Amino acid sequence: MVLPVKGNMTVMIDEFIAAHLDESLQEVMALCRQPSVSARREGTRECADLVVALLARHGLEVSKFETAGNPIIVGRIAGRSARTLLCYNHYDVQPPEPLNLWQSPPFEPVIRDGALFARGSRDDKGELVARLAALAAVRHAHAGQLPCGVTFIVEGEEEIGSPHIAEFVLQHRDLLVCNGAIWEEGGIEPEGAPYISLGARGLLAVELSVSTMKTDAHSGRAHFLPSAAWRMVRALQSLKDDSERITIEGFQSRAIPPTALDLEYLAKLPDSLALDREIYGIEHYLNGRTSAEIRRAVFEPTCNIQGITTGYQGDGLKTVIPSKASAKLDFRLVPDQVPSECLELLRRHLDKHGFGDVNVMLLGAMHPAKTSSADPLVALAASAAQEVYAKSAVIYPMVGGSSPIYAFRGPLGGIPVINPGIGYWDNRAHAPNEHIRIADFSQAVRHIARIIDGFADIGAP
Amino acid sequence: MVLPVKGNMTVMIDEFIAAHLDESLQEVMALCRQPSVSARREGTRECADLVVALLARHGLEVSKFETAGNPIIVGRIAGRSARTLLCYNHYDVQPPEPLNLWQSPPFEPVIRDGALFARGSRDDKGELVARLAALAAVRHAHAGQLPCGVTFIVEGEEEIGSPHIAEFVLQHRDLLVCNGAIWEEGGIEPEGAPYISLGARGLLAVELSVSTMKTDAHSGRAHFLPSAAWRMVRALQSLKDDSERITIEGFQSRAIPPTALDLEYLAKLPDSLALDREIYGIEHYLNGRTSAEIRRAVFEPTCNIQGITTGYQGDGLKTVIPSKASAKLDFRLVPDQVPSECLELLRRHLDKHGFGDVNVMLLGAMHPAKTSSADPLVALAASAAQEVYAKSAVIYPMVGGSSPIYAFRGPLGGIPVINPGIGYWDNRAHAPNEHIRIADFSQAVRHIARIIDGFADIGAP
């Protein structure tokens, strides 16, 4: 008896979405018409006010919170059930430059060839509107009352590293209490199947630096003066063995291996070697790892050198012994590694290996965060995806990069976080000619609506 | 009977030098008044002509040879004996900038506080004139005929790396045939004793470079994309062990250890740890080596990193995997290492250790060159030093740097090369306020005169 009702419900939902598609696109265009470049605080306050009005128009109870940076907006709407779904979005955008590469002006949205072009159309104004459109459709199908509560949190500093969001979440846990969340953006793979990312690695970024002399010296003295360049090479070399394993004692002790279900999802992921060969011009993966091995390796921490600075870097030669050397590193961390602990282990490692003279400066840190592959929200998103896209969702138990998901997940009680969305592989987010395809937008709204529609039920005991 | 004659001879020599000191200083000032900045070919031709005239005025038979750069001048004068001493000098100077730091204009020579200030006064116009003054004194003492022949070779591109001198020497071996040589410049140690350098290490300078991808990549992919930064760190690490020993197979096979006499001279060298502590701010020498160990280590080749360039070097962090990395290296070589052979061994080493993707580009090469500590010319210079300075000469069997001495030594039959001269530790050569102290000049002329005076005798069977 459940299925026919559901079927009827989704027909109503989809019809409403289709009927209001133009309205939704107008909302995207209205937001995109307002520049909101956080990097230079251009139009961000005006855009925040547009978002306040938009959420209010959609029936949410809206609060605008001032921060030391741009305002954070929270909009809430209650549902029949006590369960609440949180949507995280942002209203700020990347600078549009270089302007000459845009086919139409970045802040004059235009629809052509079935796509909407504007800075922010994908990242992240279109995603925000898609969720509001889904919410409206579900509310309509349920005669005005949502089956679950929905809370939006929309910030204005995502493109500059979200300097205020973590503290805000900590301070407003009561306001943001929820049972699951939809992260900023999602979309489809080249084959047309939507992807679902369940986790992101953490980050520990540091700068190592060493000074061996007051001044650079003539290299004819290399047999007795200490070179900072060689000190740095040796310190770096001590961090990792030739099989890429980090050799810092205790570094991996908190690392949790993938579950059986994680491994199952990893095994189903598409082989991207052909694509990576094209993009990066590589023949093989690092150390000849197979595609299966690299998929599994996302559950291991990495130690990357971002850059090294030492000595003479101009043309020709300069017979000099460098007195100073520095290297920027980032470690990607897996659950349950803790950045501050890893920093301490790094320091201890350097001391123990005779590199007490190598300084370590913290550049940045993010915790890893991972939603269980077995979480019912994942199953809900996957079955909704099957229905809307007629394809199995591609589930990434973990992605290689890092994100501030942890800033929500931890304080809000370890909620599951997924990411349905409007994107595809060539949206040009952060680049000239950013756009969304209208068909993608429409499908994503239907996908998100099904998740909102089903969210109350997956919490039933 | 020999001693009294000698005594009489040196009295005549010293009296002549003293009597003509002002004249000599006028010659230095006349040369210094003529700018001759090879880096921008400013006044070099005019200065070459002044040198031609000066050598002719001193009774030498002069030839000026055009090169693709500045002219090379050769002046010859025969002696009673068939033995000939070669003097190598240059008439070009370093640019005088920054001009505002000069107390008097660089090309307006002036004598104040017992010193002659001008660009080129020390390096190398004063040295050239000192040798001519010594020659005049010896010739006068021997009633107009020198006991040995003297040949001057004066080039105009020393300050830009002597690009034409090696080829010139090869092409004019007949003209330059000699039994020993005096190198460009010399002088006294802080304690007032003259130093004699007998050798210089060779040089092999290369740039290693590696490219692992077509483009830099997001560091979230560090578990599967190859980093050029890590490739370079590992390639460098493979070149040397922790005790600074170069691990390139066969690299040291031609290295000749110091002789017993070399070791004796090395043991007598002043301990420079206190000075090096002050200059470089170091506590200890490299790897805690003792002063005795570092003196001995000048007979070992070195592998120095001049600089490393890879990845992001700006402020803050950038989560990027570098696709390109390069490192400039210089190896100092000892007799009888051959730069081209060492280059080939380096290539072979990289290939053998799995770094076939690391390119090696030659940046520069110089052969090592060393005069035997037991050569009679060394003993002559040392005993003349004792007489003039009333101090034992400090003999460096080898210095850590490199010089184009080899370009003369090899083609001219392995001649001994020494370097008496007018300098002291604070001449400011290459810097503002370059100067010579007149007392140093005068002593050096007396020292050089004794070497010219005795040079015929040390060749007697």
Describe this entry's structure for a reader.
Two copies of one chain form a homodimer. Chain A has helices at residues 2-19, 21-33, 44-57, 121-141, 165-171, 173-176, 228-237, 260-268, 273-280, 291-297, 339-352, 376-389, 405-409, 438-455, and strands spanning 61-65, 72-77, 84-90, 110-112, 115-117, 149-155, 180-182, 187-188, 194-197, 199-200, 202-211, 217-218, 302-311, 320-321, 324-333, 359-366, 369-370, 394-396, 417-418, 435-437. Chain A is of the alpha+beta class and 461 residues long. Chain A has 14 helices and 20 strands. The relative contact order of chain A is 0.18. Chain A folds into two domains: 2-200 and 368-459, Aminopeptidase (3-Layer(aba) Sandwich); 202-257 and 299-364, Alpha-Beta Plaits (2-Layer Sandwich). In chain A, α1 crosses α4 (121-141) and α12 packs across α14 (438-455). A six-stranded mixed β-sheet of chain A has the order 1-2-6-3-7-19, with helices on one face. A four-stranded antiparallel β-sheet of chain A has the order 13-15-11-16, with helices on one face. In chain A, strands 4-5-20 form a three-stranded antiparallel β-sheet.
